[in-house]
Design a protein that fits this description.
Length: 693
């Protein structure tokens, strides 16, 4: 079993941060225990509640001076400290479905005699939305003796936070000394104002070598004080179950999102799946995927549908459907490109509707849920109507693509490609017509690359957007390999695929859409290389994505980076970056492509040449769990397909990417035939294909 923990020693803290995420709350902080920016603290969107907190134990503040290490685990984060005669851990935990956070302080007395312990937390409140900065809002506080907790209410009485320890054992004494004050401070040079209600004083005595755990619970509400108190009480009374429920949920993702290979991608694949899962948010308007954290606290249409490809690969079909339903509630002539948690919408996105149709088709093929096509019939019809054409070119406004900081005049190649793919299952004839126009008019013979847009003025800017038709296999092999050669030289960096060629006149390595590296674009390019059998190049892009997990926000892939320095320039964790990492491995590297509408699983493995072993564990396809195992040894390839129960499916195995001349093929020790590199057979519960060459 792969160790999924990330360990950072104090000497390597630097600017490393982390987030703990639940379905309704998240917490952001730095590994050195600092709250450096206005994005740090406890949030229950749309509001922030907790500005910062700090623990003083026996007159010593826990901070970078006595912090020894930080450990990021799949379920929680842990800070470790050492002060005189005491080893201290703080465990930070966000429940799966409660607007709350739990901070558990574990203190070990290392002395040979008993030691008195006094804990003085400083807890600062700042209730605001993400759009606010400095404000002079006032608060009231109330110490609730029976809960051993402090309730703080905003002026409008709807926004509340309560924190405390509950009724402790007789060996722990807890008091509250009211001494409220308002404090002005700067976070990353931005002025903020917060409220400190007073001092919570916790006292106990530890015998020699004794250890004690003290949980401090923070519960929030955007509704009422009573709602916050109800959440606090529930967690206090069900603390063990709350922790176990989150652990069980995370362990299920780990179980069904595991690979084992001859590389260090195994851990990274599981973390990409965990991050995709963790960015799902339950709000009053429904479930959705936050585009990125800590500041993209909305449901973006294009981000959601790109991200659903990875979520569906993970088998989270119910969640994927709920995320689609939330956006579809706000569909008018189009699906919105943005919905915030209060239901405010924006419709500036020409890619949102084709991406919905693509994600929906992918969902049906993987889940086998054909009923959704009837349920979403009107939505599908409306999305298809949103397609506007002029002579088989898609018409859209210049600011409606994912590069929304640029005016891209004419038809953008990525929008044309998305509609080609979206129409494959809805109008194959029109899809083919659009593809013909893409190849005929977007290909530029002089540069041996694709135009970025086609219209009255041909845009010959060398952008990464050609990767979209490439990843969907829409380009003839000759042109595809030429385009990928340019991408793999002019667009490739040590940090991923930049948005613009280094030779383009407008290239800027930190330009948002004019040169920076994105997790999105790197994911596209990884997929495109695997699609055209450039499997070693595909692996290199996956490795660059994986390397980002070791820096900035630990265990995550960010939004975008400076193409020449690797410095993070966007959000710390971005949904489509993680989801496309999963998608590139499942759909392209392992090549697992089910279509339960036809009871078929097509598999086109693109295993890198340096690997001798690769397996995908417990992949959910409909009601089945599939384990794929590939072994290369001597002059033989063994491919196993194992199911938990016998499926009524046909497997169509394409071995073109192995580049071998086959001598003999057996399936479960019976000789079989191959035609055009394809082996077809009805599956048993266990299936072993042996290929000699």
């Amino acid at each position: 079993m792969v160790n999924l923990d990330w360990l950072i020693n104090s000497k390597d803290f630097k600017d490393t941060c982390y987030s703990e995420l639940g379905r309704t709350s998240f917490f952001h902080r730095y590994a050195d225990s600092g709250f450096r920016t206005k994005w740090c603290g406890l949030w229950s969107p749309p509001n922030k509640f907790l500005e910062y907190y700090a623990y003083k134990i026996n007159n010593t503040w826990l901070d970078i001076k006595n912090s020894t290490k930080f450990i990021q685990k799949p379920t929680y984060s842990e800070h470790e400290y050492k002060i005189t005669n005491l080893n201290i851990k703080e465990t930070v935990f966000i429940p799966e479905n409660s607007s709350a956070m739990i901070s558990i302080i574990t203190i070990e007395n290392t002395a040979k005699t008993k030691t008195d312990i006094e804990i003085n937390p400083e807890i600062a409140i700042n209730i605001r939305t993400k759009y606010e900065n400095y404000h002079e809002r006032e608060y009231s506080n109330k110490f609730i003796d029976i809960r051993r907790a402090i309730l703080i209410s905003g002026k409008n009485k709807t926004d509340n936070i309560i924190f405390g320890t509950g009724q402790p054992s007789k060996t722990i004494e807890i008091n509250f000394k009211e001494s409220e004050k308002y404090k002005e401070h700067y976070q990353n040079n931005e002025k903020e104002r917060c409220y400190i209600p007073g001092s919570l004083i916790i006292k106990t005595t530890l015998e020699a070598k004794e250890t004690i755990k003290i949980p401090i619970i923070f519960a929030t509400s955007n509704i009422s004080a009573q709602d916050a108190q109800n959440t606090y009480d529930y967690i206090l009374q069900n603390l063990e179950n709350v922790i176990n429920n989150k652990t069980d949920s995370i362990n299920n993702i780990i179980k069904t999102s595991t690979i084992k290979t001859d590389s260090d991608l195994d851990k990274k694949f599981t973390w990409a799946a965990l991050n995709t899962h963790n960015l799902v948010h339950n709000s009053t308007i429904g479930s959705g995927i936050f585009a990125g954290m800590p500041w993209f606290q909305e449901f973006w249409g294009r981000d959601t549908f790109w991200s659903l490809l990875g979520l569906i690969d993970m088998g989270e079909f119910k969640t994927a459907k709920e995320c689609m339903k939330t956006l579809l509630k706000y569909q008018k002539e189009r699906i919105p490109n943005l919905v915030d948690t209060k239901g405010n919408t924006s419709y500036i996105g020409a890619d949102t509707d084709p991406l919905f149709l693509i994600a929906l088709d992918y969902y049906v093929k993987h889940s086998g849920d054909k009923k959704i096509l009837t349920e979403f019939k009107k939505n599908i019809k409306t999305s298809l109507k949103s397609l506007k054409l002029d002579s088989d070119f898609v018409i859209h406004e210049s600011n409606e693509t994912w590069m929304d900081t640029l005016k891209r005049t004419g038809t953008a190649i990525d929008i044309q490609a998305l509609w080609i793919h979206a129409l494959e299952s809805n109008n194959k004839e029109l899809s083919d017509d659009l593809k013909d126009m893409l190849i005929k008019f977007f290909w530029d013979k002089d540069s041996k690359y694709f135009l970025d847009t086609f219209g009255k003025d041909k845009d010959k800017s060398l952008t990464i957007n050609a990767a979209v038709p490439l990843m969907f296999g829409q380009v003839p092999e000759e042109e595809a390999l030429l385009a990928l050669d340019k991408i793999n030289t002019e667009f490739k960096t040590a940090y991923g695929a930049r948005t613009r060629s280094k030779y383009d006149p407008t290239y800027n390595p930190e330009g948002y859409h004019t040169g920076s590296v994105w997790g999105l674009t790197t994911g596209w390019v990884a997929c495109a290389n695997f699609e055209y059998s450039l499997k070693d190049d595909g692996l290199k892009y996956l490795n660059t994505m994986a390397n980002h997990m070791k820096q900035n926000q630990i265990g995550t892939i960010g939004e975008c980076y400076n193409a020449e320095t690797g410095q993070l320039t966007g959000a710390h964790i971005q949904a489509w970056s993680s989801a496309l990492f999963v998608h590139a491995i499942d759909n392209y590297l392992f090549g697992i492509r089910p279509n339960l509408s036809t009871s078929t699983i097509e598999i086109i493995p693109a295993i890198p040449s340096e690997w001798k072993y690769a397996s995908r564990k417990n992949k959910i396809i409909g009601n089945y769990h599939l384990e794929t195992e590939i072994k290369l040894k001597d002059a033989m390839i063994e491919i196993g397909f194992n199911f938990e129960k016998k499926p009524n499916l046909k497997i169509k195995l394409n071995i073109k990417n192995f580049n071998i001349i086959t001598k003999e093929i057996t399936i479960n020790n019976k000789k079989t035939k191959i035609k055009d590199n394809i082996i077809e057979f009805k599956t048993q519960k266990s299936n072993l294909i042996q290929i000699t060459f």
